[in-house]
Design brief:
single chain, 88 residues, mainly alpha, 4 helices, globular
Length: 88
């Protein structure tokens, strides 16, 4: 948990800059809005799933969290590439 928080603290300033570089200027508002809606929906679904898992076994949400954090690190590493030119 401490390592994840340290990583998030380091990446928080970089995320908006990277998103702006990867998104064309004309689409930025829509992309930002879509990401906020998806974050809210995934947070709601995660809360419900966490409650269900906790009901099954109190340790399950924490094990799921560990695996999802590992995936959270791999997905950007595998999918995000530096653009040749920043979005215009």
């Amino acid at each position: 948990m401490v390592a994840r928080r340290a990583l998030v603290t380091l990446t928080d300033p970089a995320w908006p800059a990277l998103l702006a570089d990867l998104t064309p200027r004309a689409m930025r508002g829509g992309v930002y809005s879509l990401l906020e809606v998806l974050a809210a929906l995934s947070g709601s679904a995660g809360s419900m799933a966490g409650g269900y898992l906790f009901d099954l076994d109190p340790a399950l949400p924490f094990w799921a969290f560990i695996h999802l954090c590992a995936a959270e690190l791999l997905v950007p590493y595998l999918l995000i590439r530096e653009p040749e030119r920043p979005g215009e």
